[in-house]
Amino acid sequence: MKFLKVVNSLAILFLLVAGCSKKPQPVPPLDPKNMDLTVSPGTDFYQYANGNWIKSHPIPDEYSRYGAFEQLIEQNYKELKSLLKAAAKNKAQQGSIEQKIGDFYATGMDTTKIEQDGISALKSEFQRIAAIKSTKDVQNEIAHLQLVGPSPLFDVGSGQDEKNTETVIAQLYQGGIGLPDRDYYTGDDNRSKEIRKEYVKHIARMFKLLGDDAAKAGAESKTVMNIETQLAKASMTRLERRDPHKTYNKMSLKKLQRLSHNIDWASYFKNIGLENVGDINVGQPHFFKEISKMIKTVGVDDWKTYLRWNLINRSANYLSTDFVKEDFAFYGAFLSGQKVMKPRWKRVLSATNGALGEAVGQLYVKKYFPPEAKERMLNLVMNLKSVLRSRIQKLQWMSESTKKQALKKLDAMNVKIGYPDKWIDYSKLEIKRDSYIANVVRANQFNFRREMNKIGKPVDRTEWHMNPQTVNAYYNPTMNEIVFPAAILQPPFFNNAADDAVNYGAIGVVIGHEMTHGFDDQGRNFDTKGNLRDWWTKEDEKRFNARAQVLAKQFNNYVVLDSLHVNGKLTLGENIADLGGLNISYQALEKSLKGKPRPEKIDGFTPEQRFFLAFAQVWRQNIRPKAQMRRLKEDVHSPGRFRTDGPVSNMPEFYKAFNVKPGDPLYRPKNERAIIW
Predict the structure, then answer these.
(1) How far is 537 from 540, CA to CA, in rounded Å?
(2) 527 is catalytic
């Protein structure tokens, strides 16, 4: 388990280096056919830049959202499919990563055997649960299930000590619920009520698939819902969890035992392989105090029901068709609005990535990522760093003492590009062609033990927390690093034939976005080495918060669906990063043009206009209403439309580029503009 509480990923951002896949780019970097020129850019820039693309790209049935990011994922799927199919077909040397990848993928694609096996591979696990007789047995089983895959009641992992980031300590975090967010259990809105009602029905149907009669399954579903509702009510909200000070609560085993005294924590840690656990960070102390009470107040039979549910809920996707379909019917169709499941090969591909991520990554970068791309990307990052350094030096609202610390942090920010220098060793992971779910369980055990083995040891700063084949990027505050996996460093978002304006509007903004995360409302709490430490003067902190509040208020006012608004506080970190990235990269573009002959217009657009158009096309997307409702509650990123119109409306450079004037919807008076980094 990779236990990263505060990693800021781009989520829908991409990153790019020309020609990484060595493929031609048939589509121009900016295609005017994708634009809606009937709309004024000062009225709705997102629609102006993307309107015809949105109209001509309906959401495929297997997606709940489809945009530029998903297009790149589709290309990535095809490349990975060819690698995995080849590995499955070839008889590689036993113990090699090719053998393990091939066997894992082959068992996932062997639907005949999966249907024949049903839940037989989990028979021993269900027998363990059935044999529970006491609360001590319940606690032992919780530890066992966390080892094999499901994580009932709470989450456990390893992670840096946020106030001493050179060491790894155990991490305990709230969890144990089957719905995506605790607010679904507590919300009084109609959608939350509907979700709760359907969730109970879904749980009952899953118990019936296990062989329980309708009456028993109905009672069991209510039991599960009651337990999960108690867990949800004891949990922090997503907004509360964005405060790293609230989720840092380091304590000894003795203190944890006093806090959560009905759980035998020494036995628990021994059961998961930690004889000498050392210090523990307890992310939500109130939650662990409450589950201690629940261990006594919830009956043993009810716990057995809850544990059976966790096992089948977390295993459903790897079992026979009836379980897979029921799981999709609730989580895919009902919750997110997907019309059909992704093809089996895509689902098995994702599972293979989850089990053997860096093994697959080794094959991927060997075929699709040329070494020279790393150097190209590093140069771009250094250029943007230089501009951010200059912007920090010129900040009028920040004192010299805080500037000095900010510049130190920026200079120390590490950059990882493409793939790790040191790969995960999978030699102790056994993968066979016996059973898909058995391979999943063995991989879960391997990855869990690998994480536990880090505890008490120095931090490995060469480690990556995304696989090279992942279409994403991230900033990690405890490492003070920005990371760009290989899969995202490719077309169609960066084109070797593109003009500088387009590349700065795309890749430049992305780089600036990730760097700005080091100074957003979360990242600013961590110092040069990634330690959670206050390095700001009180006056600077107040000035930063006041400026951030302007941005939060702006996004709070955006209406998405009917009366549903963007949550300006929940999305604040990403909105700050978007605004910072846009400002940094625009200045870098202007710097690159200075002293050179003015570039001619392309397709009738100036370099500045093409910069903003390139930025806007990154966020083009169509999304289903159910998926949008979910994201407003769960996602720290604003919807694509407002990730476009929101930042540009704070920039006078955008006004100048498109002749935006007072009275236009995107024009904001000076006293309402957010100016931070």
Answers:
(1) 5
(2) no
Look at residue 442 and tell me whether its pLDDT is greater than 80: yes
- What backbone torsions phi and psi does residue 476 show, to the nearest 5 degrees? -115, 110
Q: Three-state SS for 171?
A: strand
Q: Are residues 133 and 267 in the same domain?
A: yes
Is 6's pLDDT higher than 60? no
Nearby residues of 670 by Cβ (< 8 Å), 6 or more positions away: none
* 183-207 residue pLDDT tens: 999 999 999 999 999 999 999 999 9
Torsional class of 642: left (φ above 0), alpha (ψ -120 to 50), beta (otherwise): alpha
pTM for the model: 0.94
Catalytic member of 125, 514, 520, 635: 514
The answer to whether the CB of 523 falls within 8 A of the CB of 475 is: yes
- pLDDT confidence of residue 2: 38
Cα separation, 475 vs 388, in Å, equals 16
Q: Are 642 and 589 in the same domain?
A: yes
Q: Domain total for the chain?
A: 2
**DSSP per residue, 147-167:** HHS---SEEEEEEEETTEEEE
Residue 271 CA to residue 391 CA, distance in Å, equals 52
Please state the rounded mean pLDDT for residues 255-260: 98
Task: Identify whether 435 is part of a domain.
Answer: no
User: 77 and 123 share a domain?
Assistant: no
Of the candidates 225, 231, 333, 153, the residue with the CA atom closest to the CA atom of residue 217: 225
Active site residue 514: yes
CATH code of 303's domain: 1.10.1380.10
Rounded CA-CA distance 106/6 in Å is: 35
Residue 561 CB partners (closer than 8 Å, separation 6+): 625, 628, 629, 632
Q: Which of 125, 327, 481, 578 is catalytic?
A: 578
pLDDT digits (tens, 9 = 90+) for 326-344: 999 999 999 999 999 999 9
- What separation in angstroms does the CA of 555 have from each of 43, 45, 620, 649? 17, 16, 18, 11
Q: Quick check: helix, strand or coil at residue 484?
A: strand
Residue 361 shares a structural domain with residue 484: yes
- pLDDT one-digit tens code per residue, 91-150: 899 999 999 999 999 999 999 999 999 999 999 999 999 999 999 999 999 999 999 999
d(CA 416, CA 235): 34
C-alpha 507/C-alpha 663 separation (Å) is 32
Residue 520 identity (one-letter amino acid): D
Domain residue limits at 43: 11-20+30-81+356-420+464-527+534-672
Q: 92 with 102: CB under 8 angstroms?
A: yes
Q: What is the pLDDT of residues 514-538, one digit of tens each?
A: 999 999 999 999 999 999 999 999 9
**Per-residue buried b or exposed e for 360-370, using 16+ beta carbons within 10 Å of the residue's own CB:** bbbbbbeebbe
Q: Is 73 among the domain residues?
A: yes
Report the alpha-carbon distance of residue 87 to residue 94 in Å, rounded: 12
Q: Say if residues 198 and 149 touch (Cβ distance below 8 Å).
A: no
Mean of pLDDT values over 260-270: 98
